[in-house]
Amino acid sequence: MDYRQDREKLFNRIRQENVFTWDYMYGQEYALAAACQLSRGELEEMAYATEQLGSIFAKIVRTLQQGSILLLAELDIPAKTFAAVRIPVMPHWPTTIGRFDFVRTSSGLKMLEFNSDTPGGVVEAYYLNSRVCEYYGYTDVNAGLARHFTAAFGAIVDEYKALGYATDNIVFSALDWHEEDAGTARFLMNHSGLEASFAPLKNLRIYQDRLWHLTDGQLQPIDVLYRLHPLGVMCEETDQDGYPTGEHVLDLIARKKLAVINQPGALLAQTKATQALIWLLHESKEYFTSDEHNTIAAYMLPTYLENGLKGRKPYVVKPVLGREGGAVTIYNSDGTVIDKDGSGCYWEQNMIYQEYAELEQITVETVTGHYDGSLVWGSFLIGGKASAVNARVGGKITDDLSYFLPVRLV
Predict the structure, then answer these.
(1) Which residue of 151, 250, 286, 288 is most buried, as measured by CB atoms within 10 A?
(2) Is the pLDDT of residue 279 over 80?
(3) By the 8 A CB rule, do 114 and 270 touch?
(4) Strand bridging mode 407-409 / 36-38
(5) Helical ranges in 30-136 per DSSP H
(6) How many Å apart are CA 298 and CA 169, to the nearest integer?
């Protein structure tokens, strides 16, 4: 049986379960019917780096929440989110559900960025990975790890309750027309252990200074909202009449009339400017403990708000709140372009400058033949603990057309 036939046989089974249905995206193959491998030692190091970096980001977020709004502005946090992101919820977690992106280099494992606000790849790592491994008889690196969601959601709802929030009415929300977003929100709801309902974003309403969702023609209150919707996008949204609904939702969060997951402080960890701040403090030998400095030196890349790398080393320029490779440019040390994103998104944002890490190369089989690509590893941080891993294969810049590649344990 050739790859195309084998893939169709596998994904026909998977689609019928109606959990993961976006194996093709934008008319192109997205999920591969194959697997790369990790050894136990490699998996343990990635988990160690994930938890240690998670603690470092949690520490810096706590400090930023107590800092001035001038500092938040320097980190390019949108002004309309200032009051909300300064509210501490689960301060020992930088976020409830986050994902670090890593690359394996000749100098060891290196973190590229931290997706802490609204990370994707959840269903792929916690569901699809196991189905592919099961089909081929592989050992799934992520077996049984969906239980981490139950523990994390339970803990943060309990925290909100202890802080005096109402927590009776819990809603998971996403764009219902977006197959991946809606599927991810429903998957998390089903593994949250919470009594909750799903509501499309288009059905959310503000009425009498409260957030509601429209169901069967009736307004139902929302006390806790799981949002697969970035705060930086939300803050600019208006309704059809021009009313600033997103800003009002953020005001409800700031006044503790709405609990959200991920907690609002997750945006402080999401901005790549925070990576630059961490690196600045590390180079200055300030703020962090000796063990934390060792972690930063081992797993983070030199990252700056101004270009201190040109003329010294190849570097990458990234927008502070960009996603999916948008507006990323890779340069040689002399400033000539190696690769550049072709989309029109995020170019208006301020940029950070990060030392370029050569991505691991891999050849995979696809429906259009063999593909030579670059490999990026994702490692989830759920409730402050290292959790599942996933892998993406694409060009030098990992974008939304990169392949998802399942991972098996050696």
Answers:
(1) 250
(2) yes
(3) yes
(4) parallel
(5) 40-66, 69-74, 82-85, 122-123, 129-136
(6) 43
